[in-house]
Amino acid sequence: MAEAIIATDLVKVYGRGAAQVRALDGVTVAFGRARLTAITGASGSGKSTLMQCLAGLDTPTSGRVVLGDTDMTALSDRRLTRLRLDRVGFVFQSFNLLPQLTARENILLPAGLAGRSVDKARLRDLADLLGIADRLRHLPSELSGGQQQRVAIARAMLGRPEVIFADEPTGNLDSASSEQVLELLRTAVREFGQTTVMVTHDPHAASYADRIINMTDGQVAA
Ligand SMILES: Nc1ncnc2c1ncn2[C@@H]1O[C@H](COP(=O)(O)OP(=O)(O)OP(=O)(O)O)[C@@H](O)[C@H]1O
């Protein structure tokens, strides 16, 4: 199957009564395997809500999300947590590294939580590819923002998850570090066939994608 994720008729409503917001207003969209897809749109258009629903971090009010052959919207919270650990990788704007752990320990954390054995050779190769091989023993506070984000990308890639979700991955980076991070996400797609979905409001970041999905008022614009 050429699609890694298929979302059908996704609706997400926050709040009630007069304060009600339809953050997603009937979104149907598919994400191709081994492709880098960017989700763009104005502030408040529903980008983050869509990503949260696709990644199983939030539950849509109605509609369906299918990852591979699994209907995520039919899963219990416990199974959804397990699915995220086993099959999804995350990269966030704020890096989300644990400050008391070294770069290496941060990279290994999801594998530890999932009870997966670690491919040490892959860890070395990834660290080389991402240019952090000599930083692995350092704490996040001893790394630049760009290095921290590359550690977060290594963490997301190590277990070869079916999909990597990146939420504004360059939002806290200077332009040189942003270029590096975007090149590395492209490399992940090209070299490892890693399906990647990136939320960004930056047109330049979106230009690295194979495909751009534009959100307007909770809908995918034509
Ligand atoms: N937890 C929440 N409770 C209530 N309303 C919310 C919540 N999360 C998002 N919203 C609303 O849903 C709409 C879509 O928000 P969302 O964060 O998905 O937009 P976005 O496109 O990612 O915006 P930005 O680029 O500013 O991050 C907005 O109107 C927002 O205020």
From TrEMBL:
<dbReference type="InterPro" id="IPR017911">
    <property type="entry name" value="MacB-like_ATP-bd"/>
</dbReference>
<dbReference type="InterPro" id="IPR003593">
    <property type="entry name" value="AAA+_ATPase"/>
</dbReference>
<dbReference type="InterPro" id="IPR027417">
    <property type="entry name" value="P-loop_NTPase"/>
</dbReference>
<dbReference type="GO" id="GO:0005524">
    <property type="term" value="F:ATP binding"/>
</dbReference>
<protein>
    <submittedName>
        <fullName>ABC transporter ATP-binding protein</fullName>
    </submittedName>
</protein>
<dbReference type="InterPro" id="IPR003439">
    <property type="entry name" value="ABC_transporter-like_ATP-bd"/>
</dbReference>
<feature type="domain" description="ABC transporter">
    <location>
        <begin position="5"/>
        <end position="222"/>
    </location>
</feature>
<dbReference type="InterPro" id="IPR015854">
    <property type="entry name" value="ABC_transpr_LolD-like"/>
</dbReference>
<dbReference type="Pfam" id="PF00005">
    <property type="entry name" value="ABC_tran"/>
</dbReference>
<keyword id="KW-0547">Nucleotide-binding</keyword>
<keyword id="KW-0813">Transport</keyword>
<dbReference type="InterPro" id="IPR017871">
    <property type="entry name" value="ABC_transporter-like_CS"/>
</dbReference>
<keyword id="KW-0067">ATP-binding</keyword>
